[in-house]
Design a protein that fits this description.
Belongs to the DapB family. The protein is an alpha/beta fold. Helix content is about 40%, strand content about 20%. The chain has helices at about 10-20, 35-50, 60-65, 75-90, 100-110, 125-140, 165-175, 180-185, 235-245, 255-260; strands at about 1-5, 25-30, 55, 70, 95, 115-120, 145-155, 185, 200-205, 210-215, 220-230, 250-255. The longest helix is centred in the middle third of the chain and has 16 residues, at about 125-140.
């Protein structure tokens, strides 16, 4: 299976390239770059100390022509520029980019009517297990008795807050409670919390790869579910699993829950 990476200049792009070059089930066939092609080739060759016949380009049409599936970990504007080209060439997409608002996320939903897309705020297998656990716990603990708080921490350079993963955790908890997250989300705190609120807390600092804890709290006890990422390689491996899973799938918008085969609550 030929894998292409959109935005190999970034740290996640390089992690995915490293994982793909070491994966015997796939071929890293092309990557896109923002600036220096020679820089990208040197960086990729140094990843596994091999000389790869890799197509490095800033032309997104060439990127699609060279691949069976595209992995995208960039920024929303870069992702949206790639969507119509993937539709034109009928190329599946694994999108791990975060920071979309409701309007831009709708572009992805419309594109998924024509091509298969895995859209995941976090491709770590462990985080996606946490999401499923949080949803199921939320479905059985009554909201009138249990407060929910989602705490996340990331490196100092992260732009969006709360993180896309934290927001997805909130969506899963809201799904378990059969409510709309937008109507119950609290961030930042400006007043005392109300019954049914889903609160978010954020920390930024150092080189933290990503930590997420979901708290279920009542007056007498507390449940805590935590995932800690020790390095970015976990996201790269999950992204490759999702990309390979897309092969042969019909058009549609999929999540890592689909990739992992979780049943609905």
């Amino acid at each position: 299976m030929k894998i292409a990476i959109h935005g190999v200049n970034g740290k996640m792009g390089q992690e995915i390239a490293r994982a793909a070059l070491l994966d015997s089930d796939c071929e890293l066939s092309a990557v896109s770059v923002r600036d220096s092609h020679s820089w990208a080739n040197r960086a990729l060759n140094s990843i596994c100390d091999i000389d790869s016949p890799l197509k490095t380009t800033s032309n997104l049409e060439i990127l699609c022509q060279q691949s069976d599936v595209i992995i995208d970990f960039t920024r929303p504007d870069a992702t949206l520029s790639l969507l119509p080209i993937c539709q034109r060439y009928d190329r599946p997409m694994m999108i791990g980019t975060t920071g979309f608002n409701a309007e831009t996320a709708a572009w992805i939903e419309r594109a998924a009517r024509h091509i298969p897309i895995v859209f995941a705020a976090n491709t770590s297998l462990g985080v996606n297990v946490l999401m499923e656990v949080a949803k199921r716990v939320a479905s059985v603990l009554p909201a009138e008795d249990w407060d929910v708080e989602i705490f996340e921490s990331h490196h100092r350079r992260k732009v969006d807050a709360p993180s896309g993963t934290a927001l997805k955790l909130g969506e899963q908890i809201a799904l378990g409670r059969e409510v709309n997250l937008a109507e119950h989300m609290v961030y930042p705190y400006e007043n005392a919390r109300k019954t049914g609120d889903i609160g978010f807390s954020v920390m930024r600092g150092g080189e933290i790869s990503g930590e997420h804890t979901v708290y279920f709290i009542n007056d007498h006890e507390r449940l805590e579910f935590t995932h800690r990422a020790h390095d970015r390689s976990i996201f790269a491996r999950g992204a490759l699993i999702a990309a390979k899973w897309l092969q042969g799938k019909p058009a549609g918008l999929y999540s890592m829950a689909d990739v992992l085969g979780f049943r609905q609550v």
